[in-house]
Amino acid sequence: MRHRLLVSLLVVAAGVVACAKTREEALPRVPPTVPTTSTTVIDYSTVPLGAVATKTTTTVNQGPGRARLSGTVVGPDGPVPLATVRVERLQDDAVVFKGDIFTDATGKWRTGRLVGGRWRARAWRAPDLADVNPTTVFLEAGQAKSVPLTLDRFGAPAVTASMAPDPPMLGANSNLVVAVSTASVDAEGIVRSTPIPNLLVQLVAPNFLISNMSPLPTDADGRVAWTVLCRSPGPSGLFVNLQNGSPQPIHVGDCVEPPPPPQPPVPPA
After folding, report:
1. What is the CATH number of domain 158-249?
2. pTM above the 0.70 mark?
3. How far apart are CA 123 and CA 144, in angstroms?
4. Deepest in the core among 219, 224, 258, 269, taking most CB within 10 A?
5. Region(s) of the chain under CATH 2.60.40.1120
6. Where in the chain is the domain with CATH 2.60.40.10?
7. Residue 5: in which H helix or E strand, if any?
8. Out of 2.60.40.10, 3.30.450.80, 2.60.40.1120, 3.60.120.10, which CATH number does the structure's domain 68-153 have?
9. How far apart are CA 180 and CA 240, in angstroms?
C-alpha cells in the first residue's frame, strides 16, 4: 500500500516539473538593461513662440484739476440763454474727455475744475443757432481762461449755383443750375442741409437771354435749371427771387468774349 502511494506522488511531482519547464520555455527572456542618466541640458532658445495679442493703454488724467474755462455765448440778437456749450479735452488730436454745459439767462457759462492741456469749445442751440468754428485753447495747470463763443443763424433758404461753361462766353449758350436748401442744427450741434422741393424760383438775368420759362419749381433735389445766353461781356448780374422770400444773388464767373479763331499757318516765303 505504501509502495503504491509513493509511486503516485512521484508521478504527480514529475508532471508538475514538466509543466513548469514548458511554461518557462514558452516565455521570451527579457534582456538585461543598464539604467542610463542624461546630463545634457535641452536648449529651448531656438524654439519659436507664438505671438500673444496685446494692447498698449495710456491712462489719461481726467482731473479734477485747478483750471477753468468760462465765457459768454452770443448770437445775431445778443447773448443766447439755454445754449449748449461742449468742452472737449484733446490729446494727440483725439478727444479723451467731453462735457456739456448750459448757458444761464445772460448767455454765460463756466466749467468745473479742469486739468491743464488742450481744450476745445463750441456752442449751439437747436434748431437754428450753431458755432461752426470751434475754439481751441491751451490751459496751464491752475489757469482760468475766458472763451467767447459766437453763433450763426441757420434756417433761411440758401441758394447755390453752377454755370457750364464757367465763365460763360459772349454769344454762346450756357447751362445754369440753381439749388435751394435749408439748414438746421441738430441735437449735437451739427448743421445739416436739406433740399427744398416744389419751390418756385424766378431767374432775373439783365445781361442774359433766358431760353426757357421763369419761374420754375425746384425738383426733388431742390434744383432748377435754365439755358441762358450772355449778351455782353462783364459781370453777370444774376439773381433769383424765391417764392415767399427776398432776392438772392447768384455768384458765377463774368461773361467773357470767346477766344479769337485760330489763324491759318503762314506759308514759307
Report:
1. 2.60.40.10
2. no
3. 19
4. 224
5. 68-153
6. 158-249
7. helix 2-26
8. 2.60.40.1120
9. 10
Query: What does the alpha-carbon distance between residue 217 and residue 256 come to, in Å, rounded to a whole number?
Result: 30
Give CA–CA dist 172/228, Å, rounded. Answer: 8
CB 190 within 8 A of CB 129: no
Q: What is the pLDDT along the chain (269 residues), one digit of tens a residue?
A: 544 544 454 444 455 444 444 444 444 554 555 555 555 545 444 544 444 443 433 444 556 789 999 999 999 999 999 999 999 999 988 999 999 999 999 999 999 999 999 999 999 999 999 999 999 999 999 999 999 999 999 998 999 999 999 899 999 999 999 999 999 999 999 999 999 999 999 999 888 999 887 789 999 999 999 999 999 899 888 999 998 777 899 888 899 988 888 888 888 87
Show the cell assigned to 158.
440758401
